[in-house]
Amino acid sequence: MDTLVSTDWLARELDSRDLRIIDATRHHFEPQRDPKAEYLAAHIPGALFLDMTALVDRSAPIDNTLPTAAQFTQAMQALGLDRGQRIVIYDDSVVKTAGRAWFMFEMFGLGPVAVLDGGLAKWKAENRPLQGGLVSSEPSRFIASADGTRLRTKQDVLANLESRAARHVDGRGEGHFQGTQADPNPAVAPRHIPGSVNVPFRDLFNPDGTYKSKTELQTLFDRAGIDLRKPVTASCGGGVVACSLILAMRLAGKQDAALYDGSWTEWGADPALPKATGPAGPA
Question: 4-146: which CATH architecture?
Protein backbone atom coordinates (compact mmCIF):
# COMPACT_ATOMS: atom_id res chain seq x y z
CA MET A 1 0.00 0.00 0.00
CA ASP A 2 1.38 3.41 -0.97
CA THR A 3 1.53 6.39 1.40
CA LEU A 4 -1.17 8.05 -0.72
CA VAL A 5 -4.07 6.00 -2.13
CA SER A 6 -6.69 7.00 -4.66
CA THR A 7 -10.46 6.78 -4.34
CA ASP A 8 -10.39 4.11 -7.08
CA TRP A 9 -7.97 2.04 -5.01
CA LEU A 10 -10.06 2.39 -1.85
CA ALA A 11 -13.26 1.45 -3.68
CA ARG A 12 -11.61 -1.77 -4.87
CA GLU A 13 -10.25 -2.59 -1.40
CA LEU A 14 -13.31 -1.54 0.61
CA ASP A 15 -14.28 -5.06 1.66
CA SER A 16 -10.77 -6.29 2.49
CA ARG A 17 -10.67 -7.88 5.94
CA ASP A 18 -7.32 -6.37 6.90
CA LEU A 19 -8.29 -2.82 5.92
CA ARG A 20 -9.30 -0.18 8.47
CA ILE A 21 -10.61 3.22 7.35
CA ILE A 22 -10.36 6.22 9.67
CA ASP A 23 -12.24 9.53 9.52
CA ALA A 24 -9.81 12.00 11.12
CA THR A 25 -11.70 15.21 10.35
CA ARG A 26 -11.23 18.20 12.62
CA HIS A 27 -12.46 21.70 11.76
CA HIS A 28 -9.85 24.05 13.25
CA PHE A 29 -11.18 27.19 11.53
CA GLU A 30 -14.84 26.25 11.05
CA PRO A 31 -16.22 26.06 14.60
CA GLN A 32 -19.79 25.87 13.32
CA ARG A 33 -19.07 22.40 11.90
CA ASP A 34 -19.25 19.28 14.07
CA PRO A 35 -17.04 16.51 12.66
CA LYS A 36 -18.65 13.76 14.77
CA ALA A 37 -22.15 14.77 13.65
CA GLU A 38 -21.02 14.90 10.02
CA TYR A 39 -19.46 11.45 10.39
CA LEU A 40 -22.64 10.00 11.89
CA ALA A 41 -24.66 11.45 9.01
CA ALA A 42 -22.45 10.13 6.21
CA HIS A 43 -19.03 8.49 6.06
CA ILE A 44 -17.15 6.05 3.88
CA PRO A 45 -18.54 2.55 4.58
CA GLY A 46 -16.77 0.87 7.47
CA ALA A 47 -14.93 4.01 8.59
CA LEU A 48 -14.16 4.50 12.27
CA PHE A 49 -14.27 7.99 13.78
CA LEU A 50 -11.08 9.34 15.33
CA ASP A 51 -11.76 12.27 17.64
CA MET A 52 -8.82 14.52 16.83
CA THR A 53 -9.96 17.12 19.39
CA ALA A 54 -9.42 14.58 22.18
CA LEU A 55 -6.16 13.15 20.82
CA VAL A 56 -3.95 15.91 22.25
CA ASP A 57 -1.80 16.32 25.34
CA ARG A 58 -3.91 18.66 27.46
CA SER A 59 -1.18 18.84 30.10
CA ALA A 60 1.17 20.54 27.60
CA PRO A 61 1.50 24.34 27.67
CA ILE A 62 0.79 24.62 23.93
CA ASP A 63 -2.68 23.89 22.53
CA ASN A 64 -3.00 20.95 20.14
CA THR A 65 0.25 19.30 21.24
CA LEU A 66 0.67 15.72 20.07
CA PRO A 67 -0.66 13.15 22.56
CA THR A 68 1.54 11.09 24.83
CA ALA A 69 2.25 7.48 23.94
CA ALA A 70 -0.15 6.41 26.69
CA GLN A 71 -2.95 8.60 25.32
CA PHE A 72 -2.38 7.32 21.78
CA THR A 73 -2.32 3.73 23.01
CA GLN A 74 -5.65 4.16 24.79
CA ALA A 75 -7.31 5.76 21.74
CA MET A 76 -6.08 3.09 19.33
CA GLN A 77 -7.07 0.24 21.62
CA ALA A 78 -10.58 1.69 21.87
CA LEU A 79 -10.83 1.86 18.07
CA GLY A 80 -9.55 -1.69 17.68
CA LEU A 81 -6.49 -0.65 15.67
CA ASP A 82 -3.27 -2.64 15.74
CA ARG A 83 -0.07 -3.28 13.84
CA GLY A 84 -0.43 -5.36 10.71
CA GLN A 85 -3.72 -3.81 9.67
CA ARG A 86 -3.68 -1.62 6.58
CA ILE A 87 -5.00 1.77 7.68
CA VAL A 88 -6.35 4.47 5.36
CA ILE A 89 -7.07 7.89 6.84
CA TYR A 90 -9.26 10.59 5.31
CA ASP A 91 -10.74 13.93 6.31
CA ASP A 92 -13.13 16.61 5.12
CA SER A 93 -11.21 19.55 6.58
CA VAL A 94 -9.74 22.64 4.94
CA VAL A 95 -6.54 22.08 6.94
CA LYS A 96 -6.17 18.44 5.86
CA THR A 97 -6.17 16.85 9.30
CA ALA A 98 -5.66 13.39 7.78
CA GLY A 99 -2.03 14.44 7.31
CA ARG A 100 -1.74 15.16 11.04
CA ALA A 101 -3.24 11.76 11.88
CA TRP A 102 -0.94 10.04 9.35
CA PHE A 103 2.13 11.61 10.97
CA MET A 104 0.87 10.63 14.43
CA PHE A 105 0.20 7.01 13.45
CA GLU A 106 3.65 6.63 11.90
CA MET A 107 5.41 8.31 14.83
CA PHE A 108 3.76 5.94 17.31
CA GLY A 109 4.49 2.83 15.25
CA LEU A 110 1.04 2.01 13.89
CA GLY A 111 0.68 0.96 10.28
CA PRO A 112 1.10 0.51 7.43
CA VAL A 113 -0.85 3.73 7.07
CA ALA A 114 -1.92 5.81 4.07
CA VAL A 115 -3.92 8.96 3.34
CA LEU A 116 -6.86 9.01 0.94
CA ASP A 117 -5.97 11.44 -1.84
CA GLY A 118 -8.70 14.06 -2.13
CA GLY A 119 -10.40 12.92 1.05
CA LEU A 120 -14.13 12.64 1.61
CA ALA A 121 -14.87 15.54 -0.75
CA LYS A 122 -13.49 13.63 -3.74
CA TRP A 123 -15.22 10.42 -2.66
CA LYS A 124 -18.54 12.27 -2.52
CA ALA A 125 -17.93 14.11 -5.80
CA GLU A 126 -17.59 10.73 -7.50
CA ASN A 127 -20.92 9.58 -6.05
CA ARG A 128 -19.35 6.68 -4.21
CA PRO A 129 -21.24 4.86 -1.43
CA LEU A 130 -21.71 6.39 2.02
CA GLN A 131 -22.89 5.01 5.34
CA GLY A 132 -24.49 6.59 8.40
CA GLY A 133 -24.24 5.76 12.09
CA LEU A 134 -21.37 4.75 14.33
CA VAL A 135 -18.96 1.97 13.37
CA SER A 136 -17.12 0.22 16.19
CA SER A 137 -14.85 -2.78 16.62
CA GLU A 138 -13.40 -5.00 19.33
CA PRO A 139 -10.66 -3.36 21.40
CA SER A 140 -7.08 -4.12 20.43
CA ARG A 141 -3.92 -4.73 22.46
CA PHE A 142 -1.83 -2.17 20.61
CA ILE A 143 0.97 -0.49 22.60
CA ALA A 144 2.48 2.68 21.15
CA SER A 145 6.22 3.28 20.92
CA ALA A 146 7.10 6.87 20.06
CA ASP A 147 9.81 7.66 17.52
CA GLY A 148 11.44 10.76 18.97
CA THR A 149 13.53 11.33 15.85
CA ARG A 150 10.42 12.64 14.11
CA LEU A 151 10.05 15.65 16.43
CA ARG A 152 11.93 18.89 17.13
CA THR A 153 11.56 21.10 20.20
CA LYS A 154 11.86 24.86 20.56
CA GLN A 155 15.38 24.30 21.89
CA ASP A 156 16.28 22.21 18.82
CA VAL A 157 15.03 24.92 16.48
CA LEU A 158 16.84 27.64 18.45
CA ALA A 159 20.10 25.68 18.28
CA ASN A 160 19.62 25.25 14.54
CA LEU A 161 19.70 29.04 14.08
CA GLU A 162 23.41 28.79 14.82
CA SER A 163 24.29 25.48 13.21
CA ARG A 164 21.94 25.71 10.18
CA ALA A 165 22.22 21.91 10.07
CA ALA A 166 18.61 21.61 8.94
CA ARG A 167 16.47 23.65 6.56
CA HIS A 168 13.31 24.97 8.21
CA VAL A 169 10.13 25.19 6.13
CA ASP A 170 6.99 27.03 7.29
CA GLY A 171 3.61 25.99 5.88
CA ARG A 172 1.61 29.10 6.87
CA GLY A 173 0.22 31.52 4.33
CA GLU A 174 2.53 34.15 2.88
CA GLY A 175 0.99 37.05 4.81
CA HIS A 176 1.50 35.37 8.17
CA PHE A 177 5.01 34.28 7.23
CA GLN A 178 6.11 37.73 6.07
CA GLY A 179 4.45 39.48 8.99
CA THR A 180 2.02 41.55 6.95
CA GLN A 181 -0.98 39.72 8.39
CA ALA A 182 -1.70 39.40 12.11
CA ASP A 183 -1.75 35.96 13.72
CA PRO A 184 -5.25 34.65 14.57
CA ASN A 185 -4.10 34.49 18.21
CA PRO A 186 -3.48 38.04 19.52
CA ALA A 187 -0.92 36.64 21.99
CA VAL A 188 1.23 35.42 19.10
CA ALA A 189 3.46 37.84 17.19
CA PRO A 190 3.57 37.88 13.38
CA ARG A 191 6.63 37.07 11.21
CA HIS A 192 8.68 33.83 11.07
CA ILE A 193 11.63 31.88 12.44
CA PRO A 194 14.89 33.40 11.13
CA GLY A 195 16.35 31.45 8.23
CA SER A 196 13.12 29.61 7.46
CA VAL A 197 11.49 29.45 4.04
CA ASN A 198 7.82 29.53 3.16
CA VAL A 199 5.88 26.84 1.31
CA PRO A 200 2.17 27.60 1.95
CA PHE A 201 0.50 24.24 2.44
CA ARG A 202 -2.28 25.07 -0.02
CA ASP A 203 0.34 25.08 -2.78
CA LEU A 204 0.73 21.31 -2.29
CA PHE A 205 -2.71 20.55 -3.69
CA ASN A 206 -4.63 20.52 -6.95
CA PRO A 207 -8.05 22.26 -7.14
CA ASP A 208 -9.82 18.97 -6.35
CA GLY A 209 -7.86 18.54 -3.11
CA THR A 210 -5.51 15.85 -4.38
CA TYR A 211 -1.78 16.22 -3.94
CA LYS A 212 0.25 17.50 -6.86
CA SER A 213 2.48 15.05 -8.68
CA LYS A 214 5.89 13.97 -7.39
CA THR A 215 7.61 16.10 -10.01
CA GLU A 216 5.50 19.16 -9.19
CA LEU A 217 6.20 18.75 -5.47
CA GLN A 218 9.92 18.33 -6.04
CA THR A 219 9.89 21.52 -8.12
CA LEU A 220 7.94 23.38 -5.43
CA PHE A 221 10.44 22.49 -2.74
CA ASP A 222 13.41 23.11 -5.03
CA ARG A 223 12.19 26.62 -5.85
CA ALA A 224 11.88 27.33 -2.13
CA GLY A 225 15.53 26.39 -1.66
CA ILE A 226 14.85 23.11 0.12
CA ASP A 227 17.32 20.32 -0.63
CA LEU A 228 15.40 17.14 0.17
CA ARG A 229 18.67 15.23 0.49
CA LYS A 230 19.47 17.21 3.65
CA PRO A 231 17.72 17.48 7.05
CA VAL A 232 14.43 19.43 7.00
CA THR A 233 12.15 20.54 9.82
CA ALA A 234 8.56 21.63 9.12
CA SER A 235 6.34 23.94 11.12
CA CYS A 236 3.18 26.01 10.63
CA GLY A 237 0.80 27.80 12.98
CA GLY A 238 -0.08 24.93 15.30
CA GLY A 239 1.58 21.79 13.94
CA VAL A 240 -1.29 20.59 11.72
CA VAL A 241 -0.64 21.66 8.12
CA ALA A 242 3.09 21.12 8.65
CA CYS A 243 2.23 17.42 8.60
CA SER A 244 0.89 17.87 5.06
CA LEU A 245 4.28 19.37 4.17
CA ILE A 246 5.98 16.30 5.64
CA LEU A 247 3.65 14.02 3.70
CA ALA A 248 4.33 15.97 0.50
CA MET A 249 8.07 15.63 1.11
CA ARG A 250 7.53 11.88 1.53
CA LEU A 251 5.75 11.81 -1.83
CA ALA A 252 8.69 13.73 -3.32
CA GLY A 253 11.11 11.12 -1.99
CA LYS A 254 12.18 12.35 1.47
CA GLN A 255 11.63 9.86 4.28
CA ASP A 256 12.90 11.68 7.37
CA ALA A 257 11.47 15.21 7.57
CA ALA A 258 10.82 16.26 11.18
CA LEU A 259 8.02 18.25 12.81
CA TYR A 260 8.38 21.22 15.15
CA ASP A 261 5.09 20.55 16.88
CA GLY A 262 5.00 23.76 18.92
CA SER A 263 5.31 25.66 15.64
CA TRP A 264 4.58 29.38 15.47
CA THR A 265 2.04 29.19 18.30
CA GLU A 266 4.92 28.49 20.66
CA TRP A 267 7.68 30.48 18.96
CA GLY A 268 5.62 33.60 18.23
CA ALA A 269 4.30 33.80 21.79
CA ASP A 270 7.79 33.90 23.31
CA PRO A 271 9.09 37.51 23.28
CA ALA A 272 12.63 36.30 23.96
CA LEU A 273 12.90 34.43 20.65
CA PRO A 274 14.09 36.11 17.44
CA LYS A 275 11.57 36.79 14.71
CA ALA A 276 12.24 37.71 11.09
CA THR A 277 10.32 39.64 8.46
CA GLY A 278 10.55 39.57 4.69
CA PRO A 279 10.05 36.84 2.12
CA ALA A 280 12.51 34.15 3.29
CA GLY A 281 15.79 33.40 4.97
CA PRO A 282 19.05 32.64 3.16
CA ALA A 283 19.81 29.12 1.97
Answer: 3-Layer(aba) Sandwich (3.40)
